[in-house]
C-alpha cells in the first residue's frame, strides 16, 4: 500500500536556475459526493466524478532560484492582474505540501492563472485551480528528480492537489475518477484519485453536463465549513456507509450501461448532500428557488418524454444537467425552451466528459 511517506522527495539536485511550465486542469462533477473529512484532507467516504472538458483553469508557473531563507516567495496573478485575495490560500497550500516538496523554498514563483469559465459563475474553481498548480509543481519536481515515472508523477500531482482542495485530486487524469478507499475499486486510496479501473459502457461515453448558472453570488457557507459540520452530525455514519453502497452500485451501472439506475443514484446523492447541509448544526440551505424549479422541470420532462436526463448539484445553487450524448439535441432544446429562464442572465455552460490535465508548454 502506498503511504504518505512515498511522496516525500528525499534526493534532488537544484539543477535549474529558472524556467516556466504551463498546464490546464479541468473541473469535475461528483456523482457520489465527498462531504466530510478527517485531518490532513482524508475523506470520510469515497467519491467518484466525471472529469469535465471545457471548464478549466490554465496556470503558468514561472520559477527563479533564490536564496533559501526559510520562507515561501511567490506572486499571484489572476487573468494577468495581481490578486492579493488568493494569496493566503496558496500560502496555506505551500505550507501543507512543503514536507513532500522541500524545494519550494529554493525558488521564487510567479503563478499566473485564468479560468475558461466566468470567475463569478459560482463554479468551484478550487478543484481545477489546485489541480493545475499541483501538476505544475510536479513538472518542477521532475526537473529536479528526473527518475520519477509517469504514474508516480500523476499520483503525486493528485496527492498534492488533494492537500489544496479535496475534490481537486479528481482533476488530474482520467474520464472518471475515484477518490477514497473502496473495497471494490482496485488501487483506490484516500491519498489520491485513481482512474475508474473497469471498462465503461458505451452509454456513458461523451456524457454531457450542461451547467445552469442559477446563482453567481458568493456562497454563504464554504465547502470547508460544510465538511467540518459532518463532525457530530446526527446522520454522519449512515451517510458515509451509504456512499460506499452507492459507489458499489454506480460501479456496476457504469459497467452495464443502466442509465435509469444511474439517474436514481446520482439524483439521490445530490439531494442527500443538500439534506446533510439542512440537517447540520448550524443548518443552512444553498439551493435557491430556481434550483427547485429546474429540478421539477427536469422530472416533468423526463416523465413526459422518457428522456434519460437527470440533475446533480455541487455545494451551491447551480444545477448540472447530465445526459447521454445520444439525447444531446433533444435535451439542449428542452434547456433552451424551459430552463434558461431560471438561469441568472440566461447563462449556462455546455460541457462534457474530458480526460484531465493537459501540458500546454
Ligand atoms: C460538494 O473539495 O471544495 O463538491 O477539501 O475543503 O477544499 P475542500 O472541499 P471541496 O469539496 C467539494 C464538495 C462537493 C462534492 C464533491 O466534489 O465530491
Describe what this molecule looks like in 3D.
Helices cover 34% and strands 23% of the residues. With 361 residues, the chain is of the alpha+beta class. It has a single domain, classed as 2-Layer Sandwich (Ribosomal Protein S5, domain 2). Strands 1, 4, 5, 6, 7, 8, 9 and 14 form an 8-stranded mixed β-sheet that branches. It starts with 17 loop residues before the first strand and ends with a strand. The mean pLDDT is 96. Bound molecules: ligand DP6. The site of ligand DP6 has 17 residues, from α4.
Q: What separation lies between the terminal Cα atoms? A: 33 Å
- How many structural domains can be distinguished in the coordinates? 1
Reported CATH architecture: 2-Layer Sandwich
Binned, the helix content reads: 25-40%
Question: Structural class of the secondary elements?
Answer: alpha+beta
Write down the CATH class: Alpha Beta
Classify the beta-strand content into a percent band.
15-25%
| Ligands | ligand DP6
Q: Largest beta sheet, briefly?
A: 8 strands, mixed
Radius of gyration equals 20 Å
Helix tally? 8
The coarse overall form would be globular
Unreliable stretches (pLDDT < 50, length at least 5) are none
For this structure, the CATH topology is Ribosomal Protein S5, domain 2
Order of helices and strands: EEEEEEHEHHEEEHHHHEEHEE
What is the typical, i.e. mean, pLDDT? Answer: 96
Q: Care to count the β-strands?
A: 14
Amino acid at each position: 500500500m502506498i503511504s504518505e511517506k512515498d511522496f516525500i522527495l528525499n534526493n534532488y539536485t537544484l539543477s535549474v536556475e529558472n524556467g516556466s511550465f504551463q498546464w490546464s486542469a479541468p473541473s469535475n462533477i461528483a456523482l457520489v459526493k465527498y462531504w466530510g473529512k478527517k485531518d490532513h484532507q482524508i475523506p470520510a467516504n469515497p467519491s467518484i466524478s466525471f472529469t469535465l472538458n471545457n471548464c478549466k483553469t490554465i496556470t503558468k508557473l514561472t520559477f527563479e532560484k533564490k536564496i533559501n531563507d526559510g520562507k515561501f516567495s511567490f506572486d499571484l496573478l489572476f487573468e494577468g492582474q495581481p490578486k492579493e485575495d488568493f494569496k493566503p490560500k496558496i500560502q496555506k497550500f505551500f505550507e501543507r505540501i512543503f514536507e513532500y516538496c522541500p524545494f519550494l523554498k529554493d525558488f521564487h514563483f510567479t503563478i499566473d492563472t485564468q479560468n475558461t469559465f466566468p470567475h463569478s459563475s459560482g463554479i468551484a474553481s478550487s478543484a481545477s485551480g489546485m489541480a493545475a498548480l499541483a501538476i505544475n509543481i510536479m513538472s518542477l519536481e521532475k526537473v529536479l528528480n528526473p527518475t520519477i515515472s509517469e504514474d508516480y508523477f500523476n499520483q503525486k500531482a493528485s496527492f498534492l492537489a488533494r492537500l489544496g482542495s479535496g475534490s481537486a485530486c479528481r482533476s488530474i487524469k482520467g474520464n472518471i475518477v475515484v477518490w477514497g478507499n473502496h473495497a471494490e475499486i482496485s488501487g483506490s486510496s484516500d491519498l489520491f484519485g485513481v482512474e475508474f479501473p473497469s471498462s465503461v459502457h458505451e452509454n456513458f461515453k461523451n456524457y454531457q453536463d450542461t451547467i445552469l448558472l442559477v446563482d453567481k453570488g458568493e456562497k454563504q457557507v464554504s465547502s470547508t465549513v460544510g465538511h467540518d459540520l459532518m463532525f457530530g452530525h446526527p446522520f454522519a455514519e449512515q451517510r458515509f456507509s451509504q456512499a460506499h453502497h452507492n459507489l458499489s452500485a454506480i460501479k456496476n451501472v457504469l459497467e452495464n450501461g443502466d442509465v435509469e439506475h444511474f439517474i436514481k443514484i446520482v439524483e439521490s446523492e445530490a439531494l442527500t448532500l443538500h439534506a446533510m447541509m439542512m440537517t447540520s448544526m448550524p443548518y443552512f440551505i444553498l439551493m435557491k428557488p430556481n434550483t427547485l424549479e429546474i429540478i421539477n422541470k427536469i422530472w416533468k420532462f423526463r416523465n413526459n418524454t422518457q428522456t434519460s436526463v437527470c440533475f446533480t448539484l455541487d455545494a451551491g445553487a447551480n444545477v448540472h444537467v447530465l445526459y447521454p450524448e445520444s439525447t444531446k439535441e433533444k435535451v439542449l432544446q428542452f434547456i433552451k425552451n424551459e430552463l434558461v429562464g431560471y438561469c441568472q442572465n440566461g447563462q449556462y455552460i455546455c460541457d462534457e466528459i474530458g480526460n484531465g490535465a493537459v501540458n500546454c508548454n
